[in-house]
Amino acid sequence: MSAAAALGTTLRTAAGPLDEKTTHLIQLAAAAAMQSEGSVCSHTRRALEVGASPEEISHTLLLLITTIGFPQAMAALSWSQEVVEKKSKKSRK
Fold it and tell me: Which helix or strand (DSSP H or E) is residue 62 part of?
């Protein structure tokens, strides 16, 4: 597991021209396409941590409507919005 985590970090930070925020948004889209609620939540949190706005996250998922279908995109959007709302509530405290 640690080798896989290290590979992911290396690919996101040192292996190419995409910034870390963009890489997390791409991974978020892939998680949504796989219909993995846990991965969508994880990549939403990670994207927020590296500076993605809630609007960028929502737009990323809305772009998937024509690719993965409306129901799957809306499910991912709802999972993601739960994470954004929880983070927002924590930051207000």
Answer: helix 54-62
Closest of 72, 80, 32 to residue 56, by C-alpha = 80
* Residue ranges of domains in the chain, CATH in brackets: 21-92 (1.20.1290.10)
Which phi-psi region, left, alpha or beta, contains residue 32 (left: φ > 0; alpha: ψ -120 to 50)? alpha
User: What is the distance between the alpha carbons of residues 6 and 36, in angstroms, rounded to a whole number?
Assistant: 22
Rounded to two decimals, the pTM is 0.84
Q: pLDDT digit string (tens) for 30-79?
A: 999 999 999 999 999 999 999 999 999 999 999 999 999 999 999 999 99
Cα 39 from Cα 89, distance rounded (Å): 21
